[in-house]
Design brief:
Elements (H helix, E strand, L loop, with lengths): L1 H14 L14 E2 L3 E3 L6 E3 L5 E8 L3 E8 L7 E4 L11 E4 L5 E4 L6 E4 L9 E4 L5 E4 L5 E4 L7 E2 L4 E3 L3 E5 L7 E8 L5 E6 L6 E7 L8 E4 L5 E4 L5 E6 L8 E7 L5 E7 L14 E6 L3 H4 L14 E4 L3 E4 L4 E3 L9 E3 L16 E7 L1 E2 L4 E6 L3 H9 L6 E5 L2 E5 L7 E2 L6 E7 L13 H15 L4 H25 L9 E2 L2 H7 L6 E4 L3 E8 L5 E8 L4 H14 L10 E7 L2 E7 L6 H5 L7 H21 L3 E3 L8 E3 L5 E3 L6 E3 L30 H16 L16 H10 L11 H4 L2 H14 L10 H9 L19
Parallel strand pairs: 36-40
Antiparallel strand pairs: 1-10, 2-7, 3-4, 4-5, 5-6, 7-8, 8-9, 10-11, 11-12, 13-22, 14-19, 15-16, 16-17, 17-18, 19-20, 20-21, 22-23, 23-24, 25-26, 27-28, 29-35, 30-34, 31-33, 32-33, 32-35, 37-38, 38-39, 39-41, 40-41, 42-45, 43-44
Helix pairs in contact: 4-5, 9-10, 9-14, 10-13, 11-13
């Protein structure tokens, strides 16, 4: 009777268009007595098609994770795990015993780490299904246990979440222990995203909800790739992600990522007919909430990025530290930030008001951190109030209102439209470093001299020896202090010895590129799990190399953005000046654009937007405004997912926050130089916008800005030709052999218009990097551009 009811229920599910019932597949059954041993990443059971695998994955050097993963893509992305909180040692075994128990034992301790609770002793075999579901089944092929019923941080097509089902975000991108965020369908029917009182699992703050209390019944991820919440009568209450691409063409998953965002990802299959044009990487199709930085607002807890931090939304969650602060743990940025200086003394006799200054941050706020509020005051009054208050870490000012905020700071975020000025209080570098005036090195030296003076009363010879000793000690202290205080060495960066980088690059063997003052080599850091890096060695015989070394260190060490190449460390040993960057596996944009195969239109649009966002960060959101001065395809690198990263800051010019322009000698590359360089005009961020405009045309057309051997003389200068095509309403001529772009002709025309605005001869007519980004994103209209009157002055 039970057997017949089970099949009747399966038939009913099919009629209701639910995901297919998950019964085991007999052609890949795993019999009782089978086992896997954690020796390397080859210990697994594959599904019949090989799409998924169940087995062991080594997580760094920390141990082995029993998991399910996509097995036909290089990333081998994990979608389920059994022991994220307790990795096991090499030699550990998962076993389907003769009595039907399925358990994992740790080889190091001999203890049972995990067991599948099948609620029955009737298990006769296991199976890894092509849906990504691992099951334990009885002789009648009825599943007694399923991984689909015990999700971790991911759901897959054909999978459902029932009431009381929960997804738990992992701790970090590479740490599979439980994290700080939950995605849960409550017993009352409401679907929620919420933070926890970490490390406890209890709910803290709800930051997204479907508001379906009393009606929500099941979350379904269907075969078409759509994810939605249904009522009991199967009506759709809330569409979470509406996909139009079949799961036959794209691998799909929905994951609650470690940053608290629930994302729907796709990855092209090798056989899918509709997969052409998609990047060979996991791409986010949709995500909730739209901006987690603005969504999480906690009374208790650090917000989206942890205490004393700043959250910024830019194609994802970006966590940063305020000036004067640094991450507690670079491998876990959600832990927040710590001060790099000693807090202000509360001693009334020594208030230390002269030892602090304010770093201004526009549109930056820490809601719920205030302990005092003043109204109808000036910004200067607000600064002085915070300076005089030893509890004040940050002051926020807007519209004659002043908020004083104390540590730890909560809910830090950048909101481009809130108009709040953030004033971060930082101790001056040369001020006393301790409470009550501090116990500084200067005080150390004074104490030493006083002690020496007392001793000088004994005898002439002894006095001479003591005086000489004191002189040598004090001189050495000041020498060390001067040596350490060089501006390009006082940084929170890893220092590499020359021998270490020589070994990492195999004697500087594999060259990646060469510039005016430097050569870049590929390296592998043996001490960092074989991590690939790019080592930029500045030419020691060139005078400008020392200046370039300082400039690049000063510029990029202050940055942290998804669209900038990250500086990992440096070497400054004798004549050796080297910078160590993260390795970009897909080379430069120049090689990508001008190579044999043309990148697809979607990729080019994403790259163009990424570069613009990087410029916006450099010009307006960085702690010190930076003009790059050499934007061109050769200085844009592409990571493994083809995300654009701005690199090569050797020519960068830093501006203080209150500066709008500067004067400097000519820098950059002919063909991308703004007219200001030739007219001895003040230099602003608009020179980067001009260079970007020329490069945007190259991205659109997949050709260089100047081609002397062009068949048609009118097409030699790309900017001239592009404007002629636009003016004659023939922009399609720019891309005669690009069918994908031709189908998107309206956007193509819009991008050409944006480029024309960027390369206006008059800098005041060019958009700022912020307006440029908004035009590319579609949040600002693009008006008809005037004729850029002089293209050739900077190209010849």
């Amino acid at each position: 009777m039970a057997f017949e009811l089970a099949y009747a229920f399966c038939f009913l599910l099919l009629l209701l268009h639910l995901p297919f019932p998950t019964t085991a597949q007999t052609n890949k059954n795993i019999p009782l007595g089978s086992s896997l041993t954690a020796l390397d990443n080859s210990a697994f059971w594959a599904s019949p098609s090989g799409e998924f695998a169940f087995g062991f994955q080594e997580i760094g050097r920390n141990g082995f994770l029993l998991a399910i993963w996509f097995n036909k893509i290089p990333e081998r992305t994990i979608v389920w795990s059994a022991n994220g909180n307790n990795l096991v040692a090499k030699g550990s075994k998962v076993e389907l015993t003769a009595d039907g128990q399925f358990r994992l034992n740790d080889a190091a301790t001999g203890k049972q780490i995990w067991v599948a609770d099948s609620a029955s002793t009737g298990v006769s075999y296991a199976a890894m299904l092509d849906t990504g579901n691992f099951v334990l089944a009885n002789p009648s092929s009825i599943n007694l246990w399923e991984s689909f019923d015990q999700p971790t941080d991911t759901i897959l097509p054909f999978q459902t979440l029932n009431q009381t089902s929960t997804l738990l975000a992992r701790y970090t991108a590479t740490n599979y222990s439980k994290g700080r965020f939950h995605f849960a369908l409550q017993p009352d029917g409401d679907l929620l995203l919420y933070t926890t009182h970490f490390p406890l699992d209890s709910a803290n703050t709800i930051y997204w909800s479907t508001d379906t209390t009393g009606s929500g019944y099941q979350v379904i991820f269907n075969q078409s790739g759509s994810i939605y919440l249904t009522a009991r009568n199967r009506s759709i209450l809330h569409m979470i992600s509406n996909s139009t691409v079949s799961t036959q063409d794209l691998y799909q998953r929905a994951t609650l990522d470690y940053d608290g965002v629930f994302r729907h990802y796709v990855y092209p299959t090798s056989t899918g007919s509709s997969a052409a044009g998609w990047l060979k990487a996991w791409t986010s199709l949709s995500f909730i909430p739209p901006n987690i930085c603005m969504t999480i607002l906690q009374e208790k807890g650090g917000g989206a990025c942890g205490y004393n931090s700043i959250c910024r939304h830019d194609q994802g969650t970006i966590c940063q530290c305020p000036p004067g602060y640094s991450f507690i743990n670079l491998d876990d940025v959600l832990k927040g930030c710590k001060k790099n200086f000693i807090s202000q003394s509360c001693d009334a006799a020594s208030p230390e008001t002269d030892h602090f200054y304010f770093q201004e941050m526009q549109n930056t706020d820490w809601p719920k951190s205030e302990y005092e509020k003043f109204e109808v005051v000036t910004e200067d009054w607000c600064r002085q109030a915070c300076l005089a208050d030893c509890f004040c870490a940050v002051a926020n000012f807007r519209n004659s209102q002043c908020w004083l905020k104390g540590s730890p700071l909560l809910n830090g975020r950048v909101d481009p439209i809130n108009g709040v000025t953030g004033l971060v209080k930082i101790r001056k570098e040369n001020s006393a470093m301790g409470p009550g005036g501090g116990y500084s090195k200067k005080k150390d030296n004074s104490t030493l001299i006083v002690v020496g003076s007392v001793l000088l009363g004994s005898s002439g010879f002894l006095n001479f020896l003591l005086l000489l000793t004191i002189y040598l000690v004090v001189s050495r202290i000041y020498y060390r202090k001067a040596k350490v205080s060089q501006p390009y060495l006082v940084m929170n960066l890893k220092y590499f010895a020359y021998e270490e980088l020589e070994e990492a690059t195999n004697g500087f063997k594999e060259q990646l590129g060469h510039g005016g003052f430097a050569t870049v080599f590929k390296g592998v850091l043996g001490a960092d799990k074989g991590k690939c890096v790019a080592v930029k060695r500045l030419d020691s015989m060139v005078k400008e190399s020392e200046w370039e070394f300082k400039a690049e260190m000063s510029a990029i060490s202050k940055t942290n953005h998804r669209n900038l190449v990250q500086l990992l460390g440096y070497c400054n040993e004798g004549e050796h000046r080297m910078l160590v960057y993260e390795f970009m596996s897909n080379g430069s944009l120049a090689g990508f654009l001008f190579g044999e195969s043309r990148p697809n239109w979607y990729q080019r649009r994403e790259i163009a937007l990424g570069i613009a966002r990087g410029l916006l960060y450099l010009h307006e959101e960085c702690s010190s405004q930076i003009i790059h001065c050499d934007i061109k395809p050769q200085n844009i690198l592409l990571d493994n997912s083809f995300t654009a990263r701005i690199s090569d800051f050797g020519l960068a010019k830093l501006l203080k926050m209150d500066q709008t322009h500067t004067t400097t000698r000519m820098r950059g590359t002919r063909g991308y130089l703004a007219p200001e360089w030739f007219k001895n005009m003040p230099i602003t961020g608009k020179v980067d916008v001009y260079s970007y405009g020329i490069m945007l045309l190259e991205i659109i057309c997949c050709r260089r800005n100047f081609e002397e051997e062009a068949e048609d003389e009118d097409q030699m200068v790309l900017a001239d030709w592009a404007y002629d095509c636009y003016e004659q309403k023939k922009v399609h001529l720019l891309l005669q052999n690009d069918d994908e772009a031709m189908e998107d002709i309206k956007k193509l025309e819009k991008y050409v218009m944006i480029a024309m605005w960027c390369i206006q001869e008059d800098p005041s007519l060019r958009p700022t990097s912020k307006k440029l980004t908004m035009m590319l994103e579609g949040t600002m209209e693009v008006s008809i551009p005037p004729d850029p009157s002089s293209f050739t002055s900077s190209i010849q």
